[in-house]
Design a protein that fits this description.
potassium, transmembrane, 20 helices, single chain, ion transport, membrane, two-stranded antiparallel sheet, about 60% helix, mainly alpha, transmembrane helix
Length: about 475
């Protein structure tokens, strides 16, 4: 294991991460809210620590194997999220415990969107901005991780596209070098954020709110600088803009790259995952709308459709924005929406969950087994589009699903052991493992009432969900640590 090379890389990451403390400090100066000092101190601490780690190991530049890659990926999220908690720890108002500070930081960087803060409306502007910014940075990290790094390590969903998706995804990375891939992804991600912020401004948000919500929309994070989330604006226009950009961000960013580079728009029309994604989305909206109308939940059909649209899209893409208390909706709708978050977005997107491609393959494999029961001697294959997939790919998807289910059960049982009721434990586990945010029961609004031990379990769930389970699970294997 090339430990000193890994330490050198981590030192550089921490030093670079220190720069992210500067924009909130600038926001504090602009709005004169007096909250700039924690960010200045965090900047200094991150910079000094990063350089102190990097300098003694600066000459270690050995080539890394897949084993070191797994460790770096896990440390990337855990170390940066830990340093991201510094401003929360240094704040005078609101005063946050160590557990709460880490929970808020991990929730932001993993784009989960679960919060322990109450009274967000009254926070200093710098703090409001910082919460949104860490989600935006986490969203970009997810894209680079999913599209450029995890396929090289042999995990994630992108390798399923090697032979199926036209253009740059065919070789599992869009340009020959990871650095070039990351650069192009940054351009797309940054451009979408600008367009989203402008759209929010056009429909009535001020520029500060527009930028903050664009950050969490493109990252599919769900943080808002208001306790009422998008419900604060009570605007159909805001909801529609949010839905459109959530759909865009929930699609495979490699498809966006193919379109932006001018190669072809055909990737959108011929991608089987995209088609499945929109079938699911439209079905959820129609079901929610029908039930709300049937129960006369809203006085106007237009309002009912607006609420059904924004809530079903927000929850199913794992954004977690709320415009109303969906947890109080009639009959099965709250549970259905929580279950929809298990599907999440497409592979190579900022969405959480199992990913649409895996759910599609699970369905196709299940269908094949039924066909085999009917015709035992027939030979069936699992096809994605027109191409038959190797059994190894299908086995990997089943393995991922099994590991996902195992982690879910372990964390949920752990939460119940801390004294949490069954419904809250189920929804909190689903909301954090799927990087959704809001749940049901005691965690419908905030996680402030969850015990400290429960919060640490949920932080672990966030990491498992964000790192595609296996990237973190592999570290628990004794084989991994053998040289």
């Amino acid at each position: 294991m090339q430990y000193r090379t890994i330490i050198r890389i981590l030192g550089l990451l921490v030093a670079l991460f220190s720069v992210t403390m500067i924009p909130p400090a600038i926001v504090s100066i602009i709005y004169e809210d007096g909250s700039g000092l924690p960010f200045l101190l965090a900047f200094i601490l991150c910079l000094i620590t990063g350089l102190a780690i990097w300098y003694p190991n600066r000459s270690f530049r050995n080539d890394l194997r897949a084993k070191e890659g797994f460790l770096i990926v896990v440390l990337f999220w855990t170390v940066l999220a830990s340093f991201g908690a510094l401003p929360f720890l240094l704040l005078e108002q609101p005063q946050m415990s160590t557990t709460d500070a880490f929970f808020e930081s991990f929730s932001g960087l993993t784009t989960t969107g679960a919060t322990v803060i109450e009274g967000i409306d009254y926070l200093p502007k710098a703090i409001q901005y910082y919460r949104q910014q860490i989600q935006w940075l986490g969203g970009m990290g997810i894209i680079v991780l999913a599209v450029a790094i995890l396929p090289i390590l042999g995990v994630g969903g992108m390798q399923l596209y090697r032979a199926e998706t036209p253009g740059p995804v065919k070789d599992s990375k869009m340009t020959p070098r990871i650095a070039d891939t990351a650069k192009h992804l940054w351009y797309i991600y940054f451009s979408l954020t600008i367009v989203c912020a402008t759209a929010f401004w056009v429909v009535g948000m001020n520029w500060f709110d527009a930028i903050c919500h664009a950050f969490s929309t493109i990252a599919i994070g769900g943080f808002s600088n208001y306790d009422a989330s998008l419900g604060h604006f009570n605007s159909v226009g805001v909801n529609v803009v949010c839905v459109i950009f959530l759909w865009i961000a929930a699609l495979n960013f490699a498809l966006h790259y193919a379109a932006a580079s001018g190669r072809s728009l055909k990737g959108y029309f011929h991608d089987p995952e995209l088609k499945t994604f929109f079938i699911i989305q439209i079905s959820l909206v129609l079901i929610c709308f029908s039930v709300l109308i049937q129960f006369n939940w809203f006085t106007d059909a237009g309002i009912a459709f607006d609420q059904a649209l924004i809530q079903s899209v927000s929850i199913s893409t794992t954004a977690g924005f709320t415009t109303t208390e969906f947890s109080n909706w009639p009959v099965f709708l709250p549970i259905m929406l929580i279950f929809s978050s298990f599907i999440g977005g497409c592979a190579g997107s900022t969405g959480g969950g199992l990913k649409v491609i895996r759910v599609l393959l699970l369905y196709l494999q299940g269908k094949r087994e039924v066909d085999r029961l009917i015709h035992p001697k027939a030979i069936y294959s699992v096809k994605l589009g027109e191409r038959a997939l190797p059994d190894r790919v299908v086995e990997a998807v089943w393995g991922f699903f099994s590991a996902y289910a195992m982690i879910f059960v372990i964390i949920m049982v752990g939460l119940i052991a801390t004294g949490m009721d069954d419904v809250t434990a189920f929804s909190a586990t689903a909301a954090t493992l799927n990087n959704l945010g809001p749940g049901l029961g005691e965690v419908a609004a905030t996680y402030a009432e969850v015990s400290d031990s429960g919060k640490w379990l949920l932080i672990l769930a966030m990491l498992f969900g964000r790192l595609e389970v296996f990237s973190l699970l592999v570290l628990f294997s004794p084989t991994f640590w053998r040289s």
